[in-house]
Every structure is written in structure tokens, then in C-alpha cells.
Amino acid sequence: MKQDCSVPWIETPLVRSTALSKAAGCNILLKLENLQPSGSFKCRGIGNFVLQKLARLRAQTGPSAATRAHFYISSGGNAGLACVHAAARLGCRATVVVPLSTSPAMVGRLREAGADDGLDEQGMRRTQVIAVETDGADSLSQAAARERLVTLPAITSLCTSLGARRVCPKALECALRSTVSTVVLSDVDALDGCRRLADEERFLVEPSCGVVAAMCYDQRLAKLVKGFGEDSVVVLVVCGGSNVSLDMLQGKIQT
């Protein structure tokens, strides 16, 4: 992995999974975003936002802008961790506003990380994208099916990291492109994906990531990927997240 000390994210490996490739019947590549400093791909987007904002502040008010800057974010975990990490790395402050449902373990991680209390657009148009959600956190899929924004009454899935009761208009716009498909699987599928990634790849991930791995089984990819075959290449974004432990995962699987 290459580390550029001027940015709050790293270049992560892209590796082929022998086990998942065999299960899916094509070449499965894992983009290991779980190795980002905050544990998820959100280091990239949020880190870049913080970086660019600080650059504008320095241009407007001078080099001491970073020490005076204070970023605020509403998050249940991974996005907040990415913001806190970026702020700490770049010499400023960050406060995370969390929902009441946030676990004490995640609140602790945010504080330990330093929180204050209180794809190229044109390239994406040529790439087939499969957006995977779980039943009970499927606001994007429902919105795409109805071609309008939908607000879920509640998030009932274990995959709380997917838990946007209502997606933003831009997300719906992207989901309606001809190159984008939406898929809804169950929490059981998500947990099975977590178990398989732990057993076969030695990665401990949240159910929100496990549901992506579940796409490799039961011919799910073959039904969705255009021109699917043994030479097809599918990239799974592996976002480990930080709201997971072995005990937590085993408890969910047993129940």
C-alpha cells in the first residue's frame, strides 16, 4: 500500500479472491477499502472534502486556517470516523452528531479517534454498477422501482450502515441509469457473506459489506452482469467498517 502523507487516505490493494471467484464462476476482485485508516472507503470522499475545504480556507485567510477549522458531521459511525480521522490528520477539529441508536462501542471509537464531544463521472457511465441493499434498508431500490424518492417508515435491517430512510435526489438519479441495477437481499444473506469472508478471506466485516459478498453465491451475478462468463471481472468494494467485532458477528449469526 502506498501512503501519501499529504492526504488522509491511502491507496488500497486490489486482489483476486480464489474462493469467491470459484463460487461466482467469474473473476472476483476485492478492493480492500477496509484497510483505510478509518476502516472504510469513506476516508476517500470525506477526506477529500476536508482537504479541499481547508485549501480554500488557507487561500482566503492564510496558513493558520486549519487550526481554526472545525468540521461537523451527522453520522452513525463510519462517515464520522472518516471525518474525525481526516480532521486529526490535517490538524483541525471534528464533531460527530450521532443518532440515539448508535452503539456505545461506536461512540467510544469516535472519541478515541479524536472527535470533539457534543469513480470518474464519465467512467461510471460506462461501468455496470450493482447497488446491493438489505430488506428493511432498501430505500434506494424502492425509489428506483417507483422512479421517485421513497421514505422508509423505519430501518429494520441489521445493516444499519445502509440505513438511509430516504436517499438523496442524486442517488436516485444515478440509480435510474441504464448501467445501474439495484438488488435487495436478506439479513441472513448478509450474515452468510460475513461468515464466508471471515472463513475464506480472513476479513472481519460488517453485514453491510457481507451482503455484497453474498452476491457471489446462488448465481446472483450471472443473472445481472451483462455478458457474464468465466472471463468476467467484478470488483467488490470491501468496506470493513468499525462497528463490528467477532463476538457481535457470532451473536447475530446465532440469532
UniProtKB/TrEMBL annotation:
Domain Tryptophan synthase beta chain-like PALP: 11-116, 123-240
MF terms in GO: L-serine ammonia-lyase activity; threonine deaminase activity
EC number of the protein: 4.3.1.17
This protein's UniProt keywords: Lyase, Pyridoxal phosphate
Reactions catalysed: L-serine = pyruvate + NH4(+)
Enzyme class: lyase
Cofactor(s) demanded: pyridoxal 5'-phosphate
GO biological process, one term: L-serine catabolic process
Family: Belongs to the serine/threonine dehydratase family.
Protein name per UniProt: L-serine ammonia-lyase
Annotated source species: Drechmeria coniospora
